[in-house]
């Protein structure tokens, strides 16, 4: 089944290179196509504006029939760092997953949940707006200390 997952992921790489997402960059780990790193740019008029948020999607051998595990590395005030994120499109809720979902739909959904102002929304924590703005200002320096981020997203370093 891992071959099917790798084929699907390779197809999605090509699609995302042809049609990139707004405010979202993705790069598969060169050594493991089943591990995709992503970076969100904080949307305007949100507490995340000006921030860059790095995380990873870990795809099971059964992808696209089973969902990825999702992690966020950059402190952000919404999702806990280095902890699996609980969403309807993550491995926390495989019963909600549909094989028609893609990396694009997962990442767009994750960014959307991140910017929601709902205290009980999926994600794990809700820092104050001022704390999230502070984290946004500090996100670039945090990411620049991450060797993996620098290797995968060198084109973002001067934007931070």
TrEMBL record:
CDD domains: UBCc_UBE2J (cd23799). Pfam families: UQ_con (PF00179). Residues 4-155 form the UBC core domain. It comes from the Eukaryota. Coiled coil: none annotated. PANTHER family: UBIQUITIN-CONJUGATING ENZYME E2. This is Oidioi.mRNA.OKI2018_I69.chr2.g6879.t1.cds. It comes from Oikopleura dioica (Tunicate).
């Amino acid at each position: 089944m891992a071959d099917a997952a790798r084929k699907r992921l390779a197809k999605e790489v090509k699609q995302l290179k042809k049609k990139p997402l707004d405010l979202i960059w993705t790069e598969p780990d060169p050594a493991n196509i089943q591990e995709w790193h992503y970076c969100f740019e904080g949307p305007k008029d949100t507490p995340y504006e000006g921030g860059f948020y790095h995380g990873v999607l870990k795809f099971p051998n059964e992808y696209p029939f089973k969902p990825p595990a999702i992690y966020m590395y950059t402190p952000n005030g919404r999702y806990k760092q280095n902890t699996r994120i609980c969403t309807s499109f993550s491995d926390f809720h495989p019963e909600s997953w549909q094989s028609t979902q893609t990396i694009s739909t997962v990442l767009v959904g994750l960014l959307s949940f991140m910017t929601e102002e709902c205290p009980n929304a999926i994600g794990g924590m809700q820092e104050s707006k001022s704390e999230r703005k502070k984290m946004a200002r500090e996100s670039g320096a945090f990411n620049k200390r991450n060797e993996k981020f620098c290797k995968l997203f060198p084109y973002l370093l001067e934007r931070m």
